[in-house]
């Protein structure tokens, strides 16, 4: 029986997938180093390729142009993995939504931020600087900022569901206040410039948010440990 018209077999190679993932990781690591160290404008795809030890065409095929690289560097810094992860699927968000009590939810989030910001803040600030001159980066900066604001509205709504959220201020205003304090700029001011430890930052943020956002008695135990 002739096999001329037989459908082609799909070839799946775990090793090939591992190599592709390793190449992607190397490219994003190189892009992060150069974006943070040299700035977005001074960084070229060719320079990233040299740093990663790959061909320029490999970068275009695996990830895309320089704006695509910046987007992936930011998204992976947020997720802490090699891929972007939607907020609803992140471990700390799941734990936060399952937690009982507003103070516990706040503590989980504050301690999660202390784990995220060391890798996110340098990239985020590089993106902010690039947004002043590059339209693609400006669009990415605006999009991520708006997405973060929307996430904070959900966070405040989750706190409100406990019945412990203060009601003398609009929920949208409270969400904006959280948005301003969870930004990498706040981390840089206190940790990088004032020398706070990540643990000190997390405890401060949890305490400050409990005092700022909640009504009634303030819980005395805010530790995420």
TrEMBL record:
GO terms for MF: DNA-binding transcription factor activity; transcription cis-regulatory region binding
Claim: Protease is one of the keywords in the record: no
Signal sequence extent: none
Segments of the chain annotated as binding DNA: 44-63
Keyword terms: DNA-binding, Transcription, Transcription regulation
Record domain HTH tetR-type: where: 21-81
Domain of life the protein comes from: Bacteria
Protein's name in the database: AcrR family transcriptional regulator
Organism of origin: Pseudarthrobacter niigatensis
């Amino acid at each position: 029986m002739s096999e001329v018209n037989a459908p082609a077999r799909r070839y799946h190679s775990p090793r090939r997938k591992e190599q592709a993932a390793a190449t992607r990781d190397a490219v994003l690591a190189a892009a992060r180093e150069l974006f943070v160290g040299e700035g977005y404008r001074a960084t070229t795809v060719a320079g990233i390729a040299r740093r990663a030890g790959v061909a320029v065409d490999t970068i275009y095929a695996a990830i895309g142009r320089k704006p695509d690289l910046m987007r992936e560097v930011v998204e992976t810094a947020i997720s802490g993995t090699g891929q972007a992860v939607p907020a609803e699927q992140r471990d700390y968000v799941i734990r936060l939504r399952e937690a009982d009590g507003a103070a516990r939810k706040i503590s989980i989030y504050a301690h999660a931020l202390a784990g995220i910001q060391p890798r996110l803040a340098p990239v985020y600030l590089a993106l902010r600087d690039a947004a002043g001159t590059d339209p693609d980066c400006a669009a990415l900066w605006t999009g991520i900022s708006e997405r973060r604001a929307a996430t904070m509205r959900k966070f405040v709504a989750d706190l409100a569901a406990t019945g412990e959220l203060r009601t003398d201020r609009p929920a949208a205003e409270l969400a904006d206040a959280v948005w301003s304090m969870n930004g990498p700029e706040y981390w840089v001011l206190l940790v990088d410039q004032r020398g706070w430890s990540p643990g000190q930052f997390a405890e401060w943020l949890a305490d400050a948010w409990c005092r700022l956002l909640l009504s009634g008695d303030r819980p005395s135990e805010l530790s995420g440990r």
